[in-house]
Specification:
CATH architecture of the largest domain: Orthogonal Bundle
Order of helices and strands: HHHHEEEEHHHHHHEEHH
CATH class of the largest domain: Mainly Alpha
Strand content: under 5%
Number of helices: 12
Oligomer: single chain
Structural class: mainly alpha
């Protein structure tokens, strides 16, 4: 099925694209794209609207940062599934590109059907963008790094727009948004972030559905015996139980799985000494309950909870979890299944010989850690939910989620 990228023509309608009903059209269109599962007949080169083309240029433009060396692509590398480009737990930003961030750079791929943060019918948090869901849309998410002192470090929106007005594509920006757009910095910043959102909505590189697993779901590729074992272990609620938060089956409408349910979980990930902010023993990153808006400050039950990321392209990543604590899939999966059976492997030993489990949380929030669901529902006297060889099987399956598969 070829959708023809209807958005590319609709978005030429001037400021109509800023209206709420139009944003709903964009979301529906993106969901239709996802519903096709990234079919093999999808165009190899996207025909982007003028706004999306501008967004593409902004996305890779290092001159829009205070350092002149950082762009959106710096932390969201297309070759790494639009996630971190290296093995550093956090990326460096700031005006001199020497300020470490506080969290690992998540993938921004497969987010077109995500929604703003909310609580579902069961009262559980879902949606939102960033590790703590603080942004309500792709546009909101795209704009924040420009003004973060540890990222692109511009002093103000006007500062960003002054740089944009000097860009090689400034004339194109004026042609799309009006000759006087740079005289209105707040409006120009909004249009710039709108263009970044449009780029992510229109360019199929942000949701290619081109992995071996996608080909398998279409009836093309066959999984090896080890990959099939890994898939079974991934889905088994008594073994890996990964599909509880990372659904692997087609949806009711036939669309391919995103391998995230956009929910939040508290996994008790060990403290990462590599993070400069953790040099202060009183510092804790509390996730949802500590986000900048302060809207969840009273929800202490959410302290320590972070967004469930997609596992698509997870085999291309070099750091894992919000704090980049682990550097390999093997290590991350072993932690999942041995966190409670072998806590001495992951957490510090107290002076009295006891283990300080969940050491990246204040004691008062330790009870928030997920200990009820498999594979966390075990104790030191029990065997891990997965053996070492079974972990290897799951990893082989996860490798089938890497985009760009060719038979």
């Amino acid at each position: 099925m070829r959708l023809g990228y209807q958005t590319a023509t609709i978005v030429q309608m001037g400021d109509v694209s800023m209206r709420p009903w139009f944003r709903k059209i964009l979301l529906i269109n993106a969901m239709m794209m996802a519903g096709c599962g990234g079919g093999s007949d999808a165009p190899s080169v996207a025909v982007l609207s003028a706004k999306a083309e501008l967004g593409k240029k902004v996305f890779s433009d290092v001159t829009l940062s205070a350092s002149g060396r950082m762009s959106c692509a710096s932390c969201h590398d297309p070759l790494r599934g639009h996630a971190a480009p290296n093995g550093s737990a956090v990326q460096l930003g700031g005006s001199s590109l020497d300020q470490p961030g506080h969290r690992a750079s998540p993938s921004i791929r497969y987010l077109s059907t995500n929604t703003e943060f909310s609580f579902n019918d069961e009262g559980k948090p879902t949606g939102g963008f960033f590790w703590d869901g603080r942004a309500d849309s792709l546009q909101d998410q795209a704009g924040r790094p420009f003004l973060s002192d540890r990222e692109m470090a511009n002093l103000s929106k006007a500062d960003v727009i002054a740089k944009l007005a000097r860009a090689a594509y400034a004339a194109e920006f004026r042609a799309v948004f009006g000759d006087d757009i740079f005289s209105r910095p707040d409006d120009a910043f909004e249009r710039m972030t709108l263009a970044l959102q449009q780029f992510q909505l229109e360019d199929p590189a942000f949701r290619p559905f081109s992995s071996k697993y996608d080909d398998f779901l279409r009836g093309g590729a066959s999984l090896t015996a080890q990959e099939q074992r890994g898939l079974s272990l991934f889905n088994d609620p008594a073994k890996g139980n990964c599909a509880a938060c990372h659904p692997s089956a087609k949806k009711a409408d036939g669309s391919h799985p995103l391998f995230t349910d956009f929910s939040y979980d508290n996994l008790g990930v060990p403290r990462n000494a590599e993070l400069p902010s953790n040099a202060d023993p009183a510092h804790f990153d509390l996730g949802l309950c500590s986000r900048q808006s302060g809207d969840l400050a009273t929800r202490t039950d959410l302290c320590g909870a972070f967004k469930v990321p997609t596992l698509r392209n997870v085999a291309t990543r070099q750091v894992f979890f919000h704090n980049g604590r682990f550097k390999s899939l093997k290590e991350a999966l072993t932690f999942y299944v041995q966190r409670d059976t072998n806590p001495e492997k992951w957490y510090p030993i107290n002076a009295d010989g006891s283990i300080r489990k969940f050491d990246d949380l204040p004691e008062r929030y330790v009870a928030n850690v997920n200990t009820s669901e498999a594979p966390y529902d075990r104790g030191p006297d029990q065997q891990p939910a997965l053996s070492d060889s079974e972990i290897d099987d799951v990893i082989e399956f996860l490798k089938t989620l890497t985009d760009g598969f060719r038979r």
